[in-house]
């Protein structure tokens, strides 16, 4: 048997930076949270009234932050206009540039239509912002039909976003960890893990423990779906049915940083599932763990996936920097999400108890 | 008072550009169709001196730590116990079916009629999707320009009648550049005479590269199962790249 030692290799660092992880995480969270808003706000199920309102807030926070993270990941952000001037419709990314405004625009319209009666009530209460509330309420009508149409448009946008983010990653045959038909499905199931986690977090910040059982039930289902998909991926890798998955598995399992990171992900995901089932009224722990799991999976896929050598045998040893392309970028996008939370909750009462 | 121009003279003068364009265009189009640039690398002649790596970096002013061409070097020990040096000079393969062109969301990456795959720097948004799609690790985002960067076969030199910098500088004459469609070219003759000994990197990727190899160990034609002499590796984070 011959043995090979790479004496001089050339490893390239990741060109999709932590910003990309933030984008894929936040947009998935937003789409899933939007779907959670439908039972209470469109179908008007009384039991879902409060969870759905909180889910809409979660969808807005993450949906407005995500495109900023995406723009920041472009190395020429000022040229984003080229996506619309010179689209190459053979590329999933080009389609994504049209799906994002469709979704975000429809989400804003949907949120506005849902909130008009609340804004009108706020205008009637008076105060310094009375005129602004009255203007934005635009009559304050509750229009179930218009809400339904806006929800339909946002649903289409959300489905297309979930489809394109998965497909954009899956079609890259050069990246063995990405090139699996299970990737879009895992992104979908973990988007729901993150979306429910974000809604739980908003509920925890509002002190609404009563919404926890329904959300934790959904979280358990989303996690169970994720485990089934991961089992299918591992099955394909270990049995040799999927040579690409087998290559990715052998690369990751032998990697010093990524092997333990993968184990940590699996361990915390199992713990989250146990917590959601055993303590259905838990808010903070399941919220934070769910968000952690959805984010970490994308971190492993994107940053770990870019580290696996395509040529030769040299891994790129990624270490996160402190600057805008690293920790500052992550903190910055989370800071923007926090800012949006403060503004939205400061101007609009999302909790029916406060509204009453 | 100025006389109106003679209509017949004006008609004659206005017809000149159309006439000359008409004569020149078919000739250029025929040339572009006929020429198919490619490179042949005879690894038996490569001594891993990295002169090509340096010449390319100097010629194309790549940022520190980013290279358009490299020579990966391996110590291969056979079952008999003898150890030898193997090399894989790498660059953009200017594929017939380039995955980078397919994924570029703004059409900034394109393939010329002469086979060279290039990047329109005025259109590139720096999304790095092409970098992800390249199976050969041949692309990178140039952090000085914020755009995708790669080997161009030194098209600026080739247009001026010069050879690519890596070919010009190769000490052992391991790199041969030329027109694959011209049976009298050195590259076409060498490929023909090598017969089945000609290989490409990652043939399973089905990209149909236009960079060919003679003497390439198939075990080194893609991802290599082996040990990485990590401490000896060049890494950008160790060198401020």
Report mean pLDDT of chain B, rounded to a whole number: 87
Largest interface, C-beta closer than 8 angstroms, per-chain residues: A-B, 53 and 62 residues
Structural class of chain A: mainly alpha
Order of helices and strands of chain B: HEHEEHEEHEEHHEHEEE
- End-to-end Cα distance of chain B, whole Å, is 70 Å
Describe this structure in words.
The complex is a heterodimer of chains A (356) and B (241). Chain A has a single domain (18-309, 337-355), classed as Formate dehydrogenase/DMSO reductase domain (Formate dehydrogenase/DMSO reductase fold, Up-down Bundle), CATH 1.20.1630. Chain A has 13 helices and one strand, in the order βααααααααααααα. With 356 residues, chain A is mostly helical. The model of chain B is unreliable at 1-7 and 17-32 (pLDDT under 50). Chain B has helices spanning 7-34, 51-60, 99-103, 129-133, 155-159, 165-169, 186-194, and strands at residues 37-42, 70-77, 83-90, 109-111, 117-119, 140-142, 147-149, 175-179, 198-199, 211-214, 227-228. Chain B contains seven helices and eleven strands. Chain B has a single domain (37-221), classed as 2-Layer Sandwich (Alpha-Beta Plaits). Chains A and B meet through strand 1, helix 3 and helix 4 of A and strand 2, strand 3, helix 3, helix 4 and strand 11 of B. Strand 1 of chain A pairs parallel with strand 11 (227-228) of chain B, so a sheet runs across the interface.
Write the layout of secondary structure elements.
The complex is a heterodimer of chains A (356) and B (241).
Chain A: E1 3-8, H1 18-41, H2 49-73, H3 82-85, H4 92-124, H5 130-137, H6 144-170, H7 182-206, H8 212-239, H9 243-253, H10 258-278, H11 284-307, H12 327-347, H13 352-355
Helix pairs in contact in A: 1-2, 1-6, 1-7, 1-11, 2-4, 2-7, 2-12, 4-5, 4-6, 6-7, 7-8, 7-11, 8-9, 8-10, 10-11
Chain B: H1 7-34, E1 37-42, H2 51-60, E2 70-77, E3 83-90, H3 99-103, E4 109-111, E5 117-119, H4 129-133, E6 140-142, E7 147-149, H5 155-159, H6 165-169, E8 175-179, H7 186-194, E9 198-199, E10 211-214, E11 227-228
Parallel strand pairs in B: 1-10
Antiparallel strand pairs in B: 1-8, 2-3, 4-5, 6-7, 9-10
